[in-house]
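Data availability excerpt. The first of two example chains:
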Amino acid sequence: MDPATKERFKWKFYRLAVLLNIIILLVAIGVIAFFRAPQDFRIPALVVLVLAAATMSIYFWRKYRETKVWLMEQE
């Protein structure tokens, strides 16, 4: 792999790592919010955070597949 391609892969990998960390944090905050939030906000907070995590997961999975195909083409 040439240096330019290696740099591009590094940024693609970095983006995927950050997205995955955000998804994990959203789910964790959703669980904490379910137990710690005031009674009126428990379910809506959980739903919003889990829906955000699900949306990010779909985006993450699409980008992961694109990056995997791109990486296989480089070899």
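And the second chain:
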Amino acid sequence: MVTKFKTERSRGFTLIELMIVISLLLILISVAIPVYNQSILRAKESVLKQDLFTLRQVIDQYTLDKQRAPQSLEDLIAAGYLKQIPVDPFTARNDTWAVAQEDITQSPEQTEPGISDVHSGSNLVGSDGTMYSTW
């Protein structure tokens, strides 16, 4: 009696096929990571611009309402202009904001000088080539 052995091909992937797939995935990842990092940087820059705009607007409003500039950013919280000081996206802290104290008043109604501007406390360089501390 002759027995026929049926030879079926295995249904798994070969080592070469797996290596090709892994190589393609690595190529895709190597392209995606810089794009992801760039989008994270742009998002942080956007948050910084918005925080600076808000802080400057609140400082101006405080100065006009109280006829004196705030002496610290905490004055803005105490007076109810801010709930909390925003976190600088590049230093990841809310106590690193660089405030510009001026000895001159901004308007004739202002009775006392104080904070006139605020900048990031980071010394990193932005995507436009300028330091974040100059924004």
